Amino acid sequence: MAKMGTSSRVAAAIVVVLGIVLSLAVVCNGGKTSSFVRKVEKAVDMPLDSDVFKVPPGYNAPQQVHITQGDQLGKAVIVSWVTVEEPGSNTVLYWSAYSKKQKSEGKVTTYKFYNYTSGYIHHTTIRNLKFNTKYYYVVGIGHTERQFWFITPPEVGPDVPYTFGLIGDLGQSFDSNKTLTHYELNPQKGQAVLFVGDLSYADIHPNHDNVKWDTWGRFTERSVAYQPWIWTAGNHEIDFAPELGETKPFKPYTHRYHVPYKASQSTAPFWYSVKRASAYIIVLSSYSAYGKYTPQNQWLGKELPKVNRSETPWLIVLMHSPWYNSYNYHYMEGETMRVMYETWFVKYKVDVVFAGHVHAYERTERISNVAYNIVNGICIPVKDQSAPVYITIGDGGNLEGLATNMTEPQPAYSAYREASFGHATFDIKNRTHAYYGWHRNQDGYAVTADSMWFFNRYYHPVDDSTSAQ
Ligand SMILES: *[C@@H]1O[C@H](CO)[C@@H](O)[C@H](O)[C@H]1NC(C)=O
Ligand SMILES: *[C@@H]1O[C@H](CO)[C@@H](O)[C@H](O)[C@H]1NC(C)=O
Ligand SMILES: *[C@@H]1O[C@H](CO)[C@@H](O)[C@H](O)[C@H]1NC(C)=O
Ligand SMILES: *[C@@H]1O[C@H](CO)[C@@H](O)[C@H](O)[C@H]1NC(C)=O
Ligand SMILES: *[C@@H]1O[C@H](CO)[C@@H](O)[C@H](O)[C@H]1NC(C)=O
Ligand SMILES: [Fe+2]
Fold it and tell me: Purple acid phosphatase N-terminal domain: from which residue to which, for each copy (predicted)?
């Protein structure tokens, strides 16, 4: 009997050892690190006299025209623009093929930053628009008028197809221009951009040269005057510069880019939500307090239970600093926010989280690290079909260049990673399926370098990992 006992203990030990070996295999056996070889050259900012920065001709002509969603449902649009010579009119004139011309009035603001004084920044919200309708609009009334158009989203509902573009950390280099061009010419045809933060990179220039905010506004106008970009604040929006006497964070960003935060009962423009077609989009701020008792924490705690998946099956979260990132850049910067909110994301079955910040591309499997507490030692992310896929898309092309240094070996949770500039699209087909594709700038416009069929976590919570199949 004693002998039997020993051999069964040996057998148990073998099982334990095997178990450790197997779990190590899971830990170390990562997904794909792309072998794509790009030209390694520094990203270079486009010079001030570039075509993309041209000031529109005419006295007091509106420039830097941009739009974003103006309410929670997509029936309002915030139109913003800058005039230089004088304030001029805050009126937006707009119409569709089915409606007469209407006017909406907004407000004008300016700000100073060190020795820079902004132009006249106008924000006008137009409301009560019809869904799924093309509207034309005119700004610059009384001086030089400029006309643009946009298409409102379809009415919010569970099976409404819709295609989002994804861009992050764009900046204004030649590579940024390639990223934007690829997005525009992608046959997948994004209808609105989910922008995951870091817009102009003005702050990395001497005195945070705010002229770079103006050039960025002119550069991106060709897209954002025609379709809404949903904004997320990144670290390059903070513009905290006590050495210049600038101690109010986010000053240029909040003056230039308005978001409809009050419509989702948020108390600050850095965290808010919008519904668009079949998606519920929650924008979070990596650079505003998110700990227990803070405004953002209280808001998110009330916000997640509000999401009605029968109305909006797709739950998408945007933030700047990624929680899961296996590059040697900004490593673990997202960790404290992950500790605060990851259990909520799993509980409420977030479909996908998009982040930027790391200037490269990475997509994870559905994983979570919610079992971990500071005493149990269970600190390895595990496969979790209730967890989101985490995508880092900070590869817009800014001056700081690519993040090429990766942790080795590739962690098991990392499904695909590559240090190339690019953008992505998230193409919702219906309540169960969405097609996601990442595009690198070196390829043709229609080529997806990484792709995945997303199965909705609420309606079709079937394993959609790309390695298990
Ligand atoms: C930016 O891209 C556009 C569209 O491809 C092109 O017309 C323009 O010349 C480019 N500008 C620069 C400075 O690269
Ligand atoms: C702001 O100050 C810097 C030097 O500190 C100078 O180079 C720049 O021309 C000034 N800009 C304006 C608008 O005065
Ligand atoms: C959720 O949305 C569905 C579809 O629009 C609606 O019928 C239902 O009443 C909503 N549920 C709640 C709790 O609001
Ligand atoms: C990559 O990052 C690691 C960790 O920060 C560092 O030790 C290593 O020297 C870096 N390698 C290169 C080639 O920069
Ligand atoms: C949802 O879209 C997917 C992908 O296009 C398709 O295969 C599936 O049949 C669609 N479901 C329904 C109910 O139409
Ligand atoms: Fe960043």
Answer: 62-150
Ligand 5 contacts CB of residue 460 (under 6 A): no
**pLDDT for res 25:** 35
Of 333, 328, 352, 336, residue with least CA distance to 457:
352
Instruction: Extract the tokens encoding 179.
Output: 């990223």
70: Cβ contacts below 8 Å, ≥ 6 apart: 76, 77, 78, 125, 126, 127, 260
Instruction: Give φ, ψ of 412 to 5 degrees.
Output: -60, -30
Are 314 and 276 spatial neighbours (Cβ–Cβ below 8 Å)? Answer: no
How many Cα atoms within 13 Å fall on the side-chain side of residue 259? 25
User: Under DSSP, is residue 139 helix (H, G, I), strand (E, B) or coil?
Assistant: strand
Main-chain phi, psi angles of 257, to 5 degrees: -120, 105
Which atom belonging to ligand 2 lies closest to the Cα atom of 114?
Answer: 1
Ligand 5 pocket, 435 CB below 6 A?
Answer: no
Q: How far apart are alpha carbons 182 and 160 in whole angstroms?
A: 25
- Tell me the CA–centroid distance for residue 322 and ligand 4, in Å: 20
Residue among 205, 207, 208, 244 to mutate when testing ligand 2 (max atoms within 8 A of CB): 207
In this predicted model, what pLDDT tens digit does every residue of 294-338 receive, in sequence order? 999 999 999 999 999 999 999 999 999 999 999 999 999 999 999
Residues with CB under 5 Å of ion ligand 6 are 198, 234-235, 357
The phi, psi pair for 273, rounded to 5°, reads -140, 155
Assign 5 a pLDDT band (cuts: 50, 70, 90). very low
Residue nearest to atom 11 of ligand 3 (CA): 308
Mean pLDDT to the nearest integer, 147-157: 98
> Which residues, other chains included, contact 195 with Cβ-Cβ below 8 Å and sequence gap of 6+?
167, 168, 170, 229, 230, 231, 232
From the list 36, 106, 17, 40, the residue with the least C-alpha distance to 443 is 36
CA 432–ligand 5 middle distance (angstroms): 7
pLDDT at 379: 86
Q: What is the mean pLDDT of the chain?
A: 93
Q: Active site includes 330?
A: yes
Paired sense of beta strands 107-109 and 314-318, if any: unpaired
Encoded tokens for 52 = 């993309």
Q: What distance in Å separates the CA atoms of residue 368 and residue 382, rounded to the nearest whole number? A: 6
